[in-house]
Amino acid sequence: MIPASVNEHFRKYRSRSWAGCYLFALVDGIQYEQHTGRQLESLDDAAVSLFAGTREIALAHAGPWLVDPRKASDRIADLGDLELARAGVIWLITSEKLERQAAKLRPYLDIALPNKKSALLRFWDPRVIHGLNEAYRSKEKRALFKTATEWQYLYEEQRFTINDHDQPH
């Protein structure tokens, strides 16, 4: 369910940092569905759509989901397999519980465009987050990354980490 390298890093992080930290998966609903043939569904304290409570609620099945892989392991497909097969998983280390972490991420779903319109920011896609890490240089724009203590993802078969103290290279 959780890739060994992510799990090992989380255990080391937890032992040197604080006991009250959590490991969640930010999952692309459409990638999950295409990989498994099933849609993600809300599970108490285990899986929540980031579109819940937003105007995009009708797209919840296809959008970003925050999943506690330990609590949901017997009810969802292996997210480690999904991560290897498709650009559909980002791992987050955070001090927040599931719903609170989802609430911290929701304000970043939409961005304002120069023409005053808004667009969906697909920060749950590893290909997008990789580019954002390079492009977001200002303190204001890096606020997205501060919503979690650490972000881990695969990009072009390499594991990358963004922590809340990092600046892009």
Task: Describe the protein's architecture and organization.
- The chain is an alpha+beta fold.
- It has one domain.
- The chain is about 30% helix and about 20% strand.
- The protein has 6 helices and 8 strands; from the N terminus they run αβαββααβαββαββ.
- It has helices spanning about 5-15, 30-35, 70, 80-85, 100-105, 125-135, and strands at about 20-30, 45-50, 65, 90-95, 110, 120, 150-155, 160-165.
- It has a 6-stranded antiparallel β-sheet with strand order 2-3-1-4-7-8, sandwiched between helices.
- Strand 5 and strand 6 form a beta hairpin.
- The chain is globular, with a radius of gyration of 15 Å.
- The protein starts with a helix and ends in a 6-residue tail after the last strand.
Summarize the topology.
Elements (H helix, E strand, L loop, with lengths): L3 H13 L5 E7 H8 L10 E3 L14 E4 L1 H4 L6 H7 L3 E6 L3 H8 L4 E3 L5 E3 L5 H10 L14 E6 L2 E6 L6
Antiparallel strand pairs: 1-3, 1-4, 2-3, 4-7, 5-6, 7-8
- Tally of structural domains: 1
Mind describing the biggest β-sheet? 6 strands, antiparallel
Task: Flag low-confidence runs.
Answer: none
Strand order of the largest sheet: 2-3-1-4-7-8
**Strand portion, in percent?**
15-25%
Mean pLDDT: 89
Give the fraction of residues assigned to helices.
25-40%
Q: Span between N and C termini?
A: 31 Å
Radius of gyration (Å): 15 Å
Query: Which structural class best describes the helix and strand composition?
Result: alpha+beta
- The string of secondary-structure elements, in order, is HEHEEHHEHEEHEE
**Number of distinct helices:** 6
The backbone outline, from C-alpha atoms, is: globular
Q: Tell me the total number of β-strands.
A: 8
